[in-house]
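2024-03-11 09:14:02 DEBUG pipeline.ingest accepted 1 chain
2024-03-11 09:14:02 DEBUG pipeline.ingest length=469
2024-03-11 09:14:03 DEBUG pipeline.predict start
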Amino acid sequence: MFLSTNACEGKEECIKACPTKSIRLINGIPFSCLTCGICCKNCPNGAIFQNSYGGYVVDRAKCNGCGICMYNCPTNNIKIEDGIVYGICSRCGVCAEAYPDCRVDGFELEKQKQLTLIESFKILNPPLDNVPHKTESATKEVSRSYFGTDCEKCILCGRCEEYCPTGAIHVKVDWDDGICRECRLCSDVCPNGSMNKYQIVAKSSCTLCLNCLKACPNDAISINDSEIIVNKLNQKTTGSIVSCLNCGLCADLCENGSHKNIGGKLRYDPTIDTENVTHKKAIAFCPVNTLSEDSEMYIYDEFNDEELPTLAGFCVSCGKCTQVCDEVQARQYMTHTWDGKVSKDCISCGICVEVCQENAITLNRGSISVDLDECILCENCAVHCPVDAIPKSTMYKNKIKDGFNFIEQKLCMHCGLCYNICSYDAIDRIDGNYVVNDENCTYCGACKNACPARAFLFERNFKDSIEGI
């Protein structure tokens, strides 16, 4: 819902700019759709849906022009012209963007008035000393505690990965196998201390038990002429380290209650996995892709006579990684916070809204609104953001690999919103029609989210990658 301010002179410019004709003039004042959603609830064909902006859009491919939405509109704002439904606000924000002094976002105005009212209560009724009282409930920021990595200190030895009991840490180096990463596991398993922490072997005390050779995760230890040889490369290791964020999203998406977030710590009881549930949803939406089915432990289902997989790759907050990282102290107990703000690089692509499983994000033109009471700081939005407008605490990243984007001309309303919002000049205007320029398109989805007619046939694929933080 967008409202007209007292500065409005009734020149009807916003009415002309509105692509869905959802603004009309009443007694000289522009009045627009309330975005109450009644039209969506009453549509018998499911042709009206709520978009990423929080507004409502008519799917013209499904709409048969029955007029039920028009008859149920409480403000008589909906009308049908030439079989096309108009009068429903998609909250695209074009009116407010073109005329910021005359049009304001009603949702934001309501929030501001509520905060002003709360502040006034503090002045009028200051709390008395030693008298219990409720504090302001508006969340300023959301925080999450977790075991993370100081990337400036980390030498990517992989020691934490080897000692993590649930496989929640993934370390990758740019070297091939067969080269020592200084994880010191060989020193840990040596029964008589012949292998020191610098991977130097004391030949006089070495018994050739070969424990070091068996324990080396990188096959960097060999034996030659009855001597232990460690293949070391004297240069700085490059690569990445990604670990569970302890966000609890996997627990929220668990289908049978076997995986829970108890007091900010993840807990898993495999004995509850008695039904044929594979945790596919939780694994698919893990923000950093550490969650997986355990390849070593299974639960036997006597009723169906089969083995069911269990869950691995989540942090249980045991702290073992910090204990074994005693040399460089790169693994630490950390706290990540976010106030819901994004940088000016935001291109309104809407990917953050699509991947948020907590429904905590609403898309605006050039920014987003985050419900911090719902946000669990899983960083799915940040991991998928194509322009890194959202802060993140992990090196993991999902980048757009490829996709498909096409405008169905029979559905296009020729409003030009896609053309105006595209940051990559990937929408061309040819003979009054808008078409996608495949060479420039990055498949970010900003045009699709801005379209009030659902005229885009759109798909995208992501690929995993690693980026510095």
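2024-03-11 09:14:41 DEBUG pipeline.report The longest helix spans residues 106-124.
2024-03-11 09:14:41 DEBUG pipeline.predict end
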